[in-house]
Amino acid sequence: MTANPDTDIIKEIRTLLWGNCPKEDVFNRWAQGFQFSLDEPTALVQIEGGPCAVIAPVQAFIIKDLLLDGPPNGWKHITVEKQDRLLVKAATEIICRASDSRDPRYSIVYIEDDNPEDNENLPNSHQVSNDTEEQPQINSDYFHSRLRTFTTGDLDEVEQYMAQRIDTLKEPFGVLLLLYTVVCTKGIQGMHCEMSDPTEPAIDSIYGYGCQSLINLMLTGRAVSHVWDHEQDVGGLKLRGIDKQNTVGFLALLEHLRYCEVGGFLKCPSHPVWVLGSETHLTVVFSNDRRLVSPETPAEQARRVFKKFDPEGSNFIPAELLQDVLAELGLVTDSEYVEIMRKKLDNENLGIILLAIFMDEFFPEETRTCPDTFTLYHYNGLERSNPDNRIQYHSGDAVLLECTVKCILDSNPMLTVLQTKWPSIEVQWESGRTPSLN
Prior knowledge:
Elements: E1 2-4, H1 8-18, H2 24-30, H3 52-67, H4 80-98, E2 106-111, H5 140-145, E3 147-152, H6 155-164, H7 166-170, H8 174-186, H9 188-194, H10 212-220, E4 231-234, E5 237-240, E6 249-252, H11 264-267, E7 273-277, E8 282-286, H12 298-308, E9 316-318, H13 322-328, H14 335-345, E10 352-354, H15 355-362, E11 373-379, E12 394-400, H16 413-419, E13 425-429
Parallel strand pairs: 6-7
Antiparallel strand pairs: 1-3, 2-3, 4-5, 7-8, 8-11, 9-10, 11-12, 12-13
Helix pairs in contact: 3-4, 3-10, 4-6, 4-8, 4-10
InterPro entries: EF-hand-dom_pair, EF_hand_dom, MINDY-3/4_CD, MINY3/4
Catalytic activity: Thiol-dependent hydrolysis of ester, thioester, amide, peptide and isopeptide bonds formed by the C-terminal Gly of ubiquitin (a 76-residue protein attached to proteins as an intracellular targeting signal)
Family: Belongs to the MINDY deubiquitinase family. FAM188 subfamily.
C-alpha cells in the first residue's frame, strides 16, 4: 500500500466531475452516505436528486449478490453486519471493474482525519432526511482539501480496508468517496480516452445529474458515453460503446424515441438486474427468475454480430461484408462458399444482404428461452417517489403477450422502458399503482 499526499490528482478529478467551480447546492446534494431504508433493509436511501448515478449502480450490485442467496421475500430480516458485507462487496466489485485488468491498481480516496475541533464542520454522520433545511451545508473547497489517496495492487486489501472503515461509506461523504475512488482507479487518462467529451463536467452543474459516462463507469468500468455494443461509425466518427456482456443491465426510457440505442450487452446481462434510466433519475428493476438471463442463443449472437456490421441500424449490410460476419460467427468462410451464399442471399444483385434473409438461411429456427410469466421488483431510492415515503421494493406480475406489437403509452413510462427489453410485456403491480421512474 502506497500513500499519496499529492493533491494534483484530486484537482483533476474535481475538474473532471464538477468543472472549474462546483456549485455548492449541487455539491451538497451529492454529500450523503450509503444508508439503508428502515422499511426495506437491503434498499439504499437517496436523500436528494443527483447521486443516483452512483447509488443506483451500487444498489444493482447489492441486489445481484442478494439474488444468489435466495428470493426477495426473505430479505426483510437482514442484520447490520449483513448490510455492511453487501455494501463492501458491491463497492469492491465496482472499484475492481474500473481498474486495468492487465495491470490492476486500485487507488482509494479517503478523508484525512480531522482535528477534534474540525469535526464541528461535519454533518451528522447517520442523518437520513428529506428535509433540506436540516442538512448541514458543506464547503466543497474544505472537502477537497482533506482528500488523500493510497494505491494498492491487492484487491483483497481494498475489500479489507472497506470493511474496516465501513463508517466512511455510511457517513455524509460516502457516495462521493466511492465515486472519487472509482474515477481515481480508472485514472484521468483512462477517463479522457473513453469519454466523448471530457471537457464537459461529468456532473450537470445545474441539476446535478451524472452523465452517461459516469453511469457506464459505475456499471461496467468503462467511461464510454454510449450504451450500444462495441463501437459505431457515425459520420466518420468511431463512437465507443460497451465491449462485452455486463454483470447487471441497463435500459433507457429514451430509447423508444431513438435518442439512444441500448445494445445486447446491457439489455441481456448475466444477472436479472437492470438499472432503468428516465430523463432525470435512475432506478432498478430485477427478478429472481434466472430464465430471463439464459445464455445467449446462436441466433441472438448472430443478430448481435450482424448489427455490429450494420452501425446505422438499417437491418442490412453490404454484400462484401458477408465473409466477415461469417468469420466472426465461426461459420464457413471458404471463398467459393461465401460467393455462392452471397449470390443466394442477394439474388437481385442489389449489393446488400438483409438481416431477415441472413437469419432464415443460417438460423431458421429459434427456441424461445424467456418465460411467459415472471415476477418483477422495482426499487426507487427517493422517499418522495414511494407510496407513503417508504422506500420498499414493489412487486409486479409480468406477462409476455403473444402479440408482438408494442403499445407505447406516454402516460406509462415504466411500461415504455420495459418494452425496450420485452416488446410485448404487460405488468400488473401488486400495489395497484405503477412505480415511479422519477
